[in-house]
Design goal:
single chain, mainly alpha, two-stranded antiparallel sheet, rod-shaped
Length: 205
């Protein structure tokens, strides 16, 4: 424990610090709870997205041979041209949220292309969007977990170190100042008795 000054000024400073720590601790605890709830919510969404991805990949795999036969030109129309995200604030921190995925418009001869091409393109686009969502959800969880670690550290610092330390410092300073005040009263009484004795002796003389 850091050595403290045993003064009234230090007592006020320690009391002010204690008041500040006790004010911010409930805010930190609330933030910790919000982050935990939000992390769990996003984890559930991520699990659902992964299930959707697995199901769609299984569906698209039926066409994999046909896609290869077409010379791979479909890849040009299912590759993202632009991924647009925005920030969403949760418990005072910004996390990315997928807004949309832009693709190139497919250009092919409807009379020549096989009938399944339109369906294949839409399904693969849907898969690409799901994969983008998966990555952003993982990024959200990573950000929330990092912020949660920092918040938990602060909660522990306040609960286990700062608040007990301030309370102990206040106790020590109050005891010391109380003893000093008692000693001062005692010395005052002794001095008063000596003065009264001298006055009495002078009066007798």
């Amino acid at each position: 424990m850091t050595k403290i000054k045993l003064t009234k000024g230090e007592l006020k400073r320690q009391r002010d610090s204690l008041k500040q720590f006790e004010h911010y601790l409930p805010i930190l605890l609330l933030k910790k709870q919000q982050l935990q709830i939000e992390r769990e919510r996003i984890r559930n969404i991520l699990r659902q997205k992964i299930e959707e991805i697995d199901a769609l990949e299984g569906e698209i795999s039926d066409w994999s041979g046909l896609l290869n036969e077409e010379g791979g030109y479909i890849a040009n129309w299912v590759r993202p041209r632009k991924v647009v995200t925005k920030n969403f604030n949760i418990a005072g921190i910004d996390i990315p949220v997928l807004e949309r995925v832009d693709f190139e418009e497919p250009e092919y001869d409807l009379y020549v292309a096989p009938l399944w091409v339109d369906i294949a393109i839409e399904k693969i686009k849907a898969l690409v969007v799901l994969l983008e969502e998966e990555q952003i959800l993982k990024s959200q969880i990573e950000i929330l977990e990092r912020e949660l670690r920092i918040t938990v550290q602060r909660v522990n610092l306040f609960e286990k170190v700062k608040i007990p330390e301030c309370k102990e410092n206040v106790r020590i300073i109050r005891i010391y100042l109380g003893e000093q005040e008692t000693n001062a009263v005692g010395r005052s009484k002794i001095a008063k008795n000596k003065i009264e004795k001298l006055v009495l002796e002078e009066a007798i003389a």
